[in-house]
Write a structure and sequence with these properties.
- There is one protein chain.
- It is built from 9 helices and 12 strands.
- α2 runs antiparallel to α8, α4 packs parallel to α5 and α5 packs parallel to α6.
- The strands form 3 sheets. Strands 1-2-3-4 form a 4-stranded antiparallel sheet, with no helix packed on it. Strands 5-6-7-8 form a 4-stranded antiparallel sheet.
- It is α/β, with parallel strands linked by helices and about 350 residues long.
- The radius of gyration is 26 Å and the shape is elongated.
- Helix content is about 40%, strand content about 15%.
- The two termini are about 30 Å apart.
- Among the domains are: about 110 residues, no CATH class; about 120 residues, no CATH class.
């Protein structure tokens, strides 16, 4: 993303890669004049892991740095490392730490004393909250999945996405899990339009995909709508697709029979029944299937402890400074950062369904 060259041209230092700042083996790389490397560094080679956890992040990047500089004698690079702000915005750090790296050897020198202590104190509650979020997600991923207790569309979309991931392996022929159709109650103003959209799938859908359906307020209407769509649709049109349908078991039989004509793989499941995590997923997480409940309880307890630590550490840290426009807020580098963050939002929208706590 950027580079510095010493006046003598003895060294070149490069920083980050576009759309993955802070990640990878070459966050900072020092080259000699002949192109050979002095050292290629990961962010963890420069900063403690717990400090990195506190830095502001987007889907693709860790926003760890300001405007770096070379020393006057050309022997060191002075990294401007973000002091994290509890407000979390990528463009509002508390300030910057100066971390020195020797160009000839690649040796890193962290600051010390009050400056470093204050930065670590600012990072500590954010690190604890990051660990709490991670533990919360682990508990959710291990525990059996239950349906939302309300009829909020966002909650049901996340539920359907997670249910599909647990009920079947990834479909290599599909573009991915989604989209999801939530049918509102029959007295809602958009019921007729939404039902028409669902029926149109059986005549207009033209690519293999994983399609998900639920109606927490009107399951009978959903069953009827799906049967009407299947009856009016083109037989075999959805071959290669999978239809995940959340319906009470009493309605499932007729819907399964009606959807056979579509050519799709039909998976009807009762939302009143918890859905266990896939055994292979549990093993990837280091959890034996017969220990899932205990491990989920353990992770949930850890999340509560980390959150309590975050609250305690916030009380010890100095208040975040008042918001002010940074001196370089109009530079090309900052504008590039803002554009990169904006691009992340599209990816975040896709991935948000994967995390029930967003």
């Amino acid at each position: 993303m950027s580079a510095l060259v010493t006046n003598s041209a003895s060294y070149v230092v490069t920083f980050d890669n576009w759309h993955s700042a802070g990640f990878g083996d070459n966050v900072v790389v020092i080259y000699r004049a002949d192109g050979s490397q002095v050292r290629s560094m990961r962010l963890v080679d420069i900063l403690p892991e717990d400090y990195i956890r506190a830095l502001p992040t987007s889907v693709s990047s860790i926003w760890w740095s300001g405007e770096h500089a070379l020393s006057n004698d050309g022997r060191q690079v002075e990294l401007k490392v973000v002091i994290p702000n509890s407000r979390g915005a990528i463009d509002t750090p508390r300030g910057y730490l100066n971390v020195l790296i020797d160009l000839a050897t690649g040796a890193v020198s962290l600051p010390s004393g009050a400056e470093w202590d204050a930065a670590m104190a600012a990072a500590a509650p954010l690190t604890a909250r990051s660990k709490a979020s991670e533990a919360t997600w682990r508990a959710f991923a291990i525990a059996a999945l239950t349906a939302p207790k309300d009829d909020k569309v966002a909650d049901w979309r996340r539920y359907l996405y997670q249910a599909a991931k647990r009920l079947a392996p990834k479909n290599q022929n599909a573009m991915g899990f989604g989209p999801e159709w939530i049918l509102p109650s029959e007295n809602e103003p958009d019921f007729v339009e939404r039902a028409r959209d669902i029926r149109s799938i059986f005549t207009n859908w033209d690519k293999p995909d994983d399609l998900m359906f639920a109606s927490p307020s009107a399951p009978e209407a959903m069953a009827r709508t799906l049967k009407e769509g299947a009856e009016s649709g083109v037989p075999g049109r959805l071959a290669g697709s999978r239809l995940f349908v959340a319906l009470p078991e009493a309605l499932a039989g007729d819907v399964r029979s009606a959807l056979k004509s579509t050519g799709a793989t039909v998976i009807v499941f009762d939302p009143s029944n918890p859905i266990p995590q896939r055994s292979e997923t549990l093993r990837e997480m280091g959890v034996a299937p017969d220990q899932a409940e205990a491990e989920a309880t353990k992770a949930a307890a850890a999340a509560k402890q980390f959150e309590a630590d975050a609250v305690r550490l916030e009380a010890l840290a100095s208040p975040a400074p008042a918001m002010s426009k940074s001196d370089d807020a109009d530079t090309e580098e900052v504008m590039a950062d803002v554009l990169d963050a904006a691009a992340d939002h599209a990816t975040e929208d896709i991935q948000r369904s994967d995390n029930p706590h967003d």
